[in-house]
């Protein structure tokens, strides 16, 4: 089976590609390398450096794949405030191009949504454009009969995550500061709560989603949504404490546009439909008290 992964040189894309290669898929990646890295490239995967918002015939790079996994896009809230035009280009225009190609060639699509849409979709350009992309996918599924599935990611952590810069998440920041022996910086009061899921668990869910779309589950995938999270949340203070109860912390001003608490995922449909279950708990991952899974 041939799979085209957009954003395949990024953090989540790299973990998804590892799972697919381990399972024996023929994988091609398209990435503009704005946040993806050359060092993330995996042996056995073909990589193309392209801007999806300007490329209309995307599937030709994978010789008409059996599915497209659309992970590419502006992936963080703060950069979207600074670059709203780029956010619309990467998250909306690129998604239209993907779905147009999927429509012409009858290719199933798995899309990487976000749990942020459960809050105020007007809070920032990132959330707004991700919501728009979901609606585009639903529309193409209903009008043009493009098989599709929206997989809403919660707060993803794991290998290949950024540890500095605007695209770095809280665990990336904590990991870098801890290795440097510096206090962990906590925004606001640290009581913001999030549902954290490991990138390998995401990769396994997406691979199972592909197999379900190919007939392992008797169900029509018309823009359906699957929540990919653990179903429990932790505060930022709890994450910091996992690095050591006595390890120093430093509180800094709250981040504009940041939600106080995102709801826990309702992952029951994904677990039942895909026979999938998240395995890695974030606190155990921080302390090293978990057993690494094999892709």
List the keywords.
295 residues; alpha/beta; Rossmann fold; two-stranded parallel ribbon; 13 strands; 37% helix
Summarize this, please?
With 295 residues, the protein is an alpha/beta fold. It is built from 9 helices and 13 strands.
CATH topology: Rossmann fold
What is the number of helical segments per DSSP (H or I, 4+ residues)?
A: 9
Poorly predicted regions: 291-295
Strands of the widest sheet, in order across it, are 3-2-1-4-5-6-11
Largest sheet: 7 strands, parallel
The secondary-structure element order is EHEEEHHEHEEHEEEHEEHEHH
Structure overview:
The protein has 295 residues and is of the alpha/beta class. It has a single domain (2-161, 196-231, 264-280), classed as NAD(P)-binding Rossmann-like Domain (Rossmann fold, 3-Layer(aba) Sandwich). 37% of the residues lie in helices and 19% in strands. The chain has helices at residues 11-22, 77-82, 84-105, 125-144, 170-179, 199-216, 236-242, 268-274, 282-287, and strands at 2-6, 26-31, 46-49, 67-70, 109-114, 148-153, 155-157, 184-187, 193-194, 196-198, 222-228, 234-235, 249-252. The radius of gyration is 18 Å and the shape is globular. Residues 291-295 have low confidence and may be disordered.
């Amino acid at each position: 089976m041939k799979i085209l992964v957009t954003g395949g040189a990024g953090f989540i894309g790299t973990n998804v590609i590892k799972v697919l290669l381990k399972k024996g898929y023929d994988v091609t990646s398209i990435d503009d390398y704005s946040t993806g890295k050359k060092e993330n490239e995996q042996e056995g995967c073909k990589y193309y450096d392209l801007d999806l918002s300007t490329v209309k015939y995307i599937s030709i790079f994978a010789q008409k794949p059996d599915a497209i996994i659309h992970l590419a896009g502006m992936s963080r809230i703060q950069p979207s405030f600074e670059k709203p035009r780029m956010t619309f280009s990467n998250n909306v225009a690129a998604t239209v191009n993907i779905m147009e190609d999927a429509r012409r060639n009858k290719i199933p699509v798995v899309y990487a949504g976000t749990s942020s849409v459960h809050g105020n979709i007007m809070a920032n350009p990132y959330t707004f454009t991700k919501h728009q992309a979901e609606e585009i996918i639903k529309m193409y599924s209903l009008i043009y009969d493009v098989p599709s599935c929206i997989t809403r990611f919660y707060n993803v952590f794991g290998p290949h995550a950024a540890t500095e810069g605007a695209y770095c998440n809280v665990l990336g920041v904590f990991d870098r500061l801890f290795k440097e022996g510096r206090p962990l910086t906590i925004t606001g009061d640290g009581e913001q709560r999030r549902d954290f899921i490991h990138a390998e668990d995401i990769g396994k869910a997406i691979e199972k989603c592909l197999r379900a779309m190919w007939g392992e589950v008797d169900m029509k995938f018309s823009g359906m949504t699957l929540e990919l999270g653990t179903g429990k949340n932790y505060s930022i203070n709890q994450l910091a404490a996992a690095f050591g109860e006595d390890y120093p912390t430093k509180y800094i001003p709250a981040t504009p546009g940041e939600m106080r608490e995102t709801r826990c995922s309702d992952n029951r449909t994904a677990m039942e439909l895909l026979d999938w279950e998240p395995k890695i708990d974030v606190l155990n991952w921080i302390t090293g008290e978990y057993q690494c899974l094999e892709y």
